[in-house]
Amino acid sequence: MAELDGVLYKEIVEQGLREFPNECCGLIAAQDGVPSKVFTMTNADASPVTYRLDGLEQLHVFDQMDDEGLELWAIYHSHTHSGAYPSDTDIRLAFYPDARYIVLSLADRAEPIARSFFIVEGQVSEEELTIA
Strand, helix or coil at 6? Predict the structure, then answer.
């Protein structure tokens, strides 16, 4: 089970709504396994159907995480018109088997839904995600 602080969740939802109709994306960092910081990032695809973390920005964020003693907890992105489940493209491009992938569905923007998954060698497994 994964638990995400409501303040961090709200930050992700606000980014998703702000960047709509394009997908939003970013990283969630943790300290000692507890999510503590959201790094909102640029969707280099600038697309309503795909996302790609900007490579240079990602390098800077990883450097900052190292400097602050944080580890990667999750990679998140939004789906603007579909459910909160990894797409075939999401699965194919899941390069971090130790990180969870959080998908935020904005299909109903009044009631966003977030779900958490691990994607390892093309296999998707869901873990319960609670917002505290």
Answer: helix
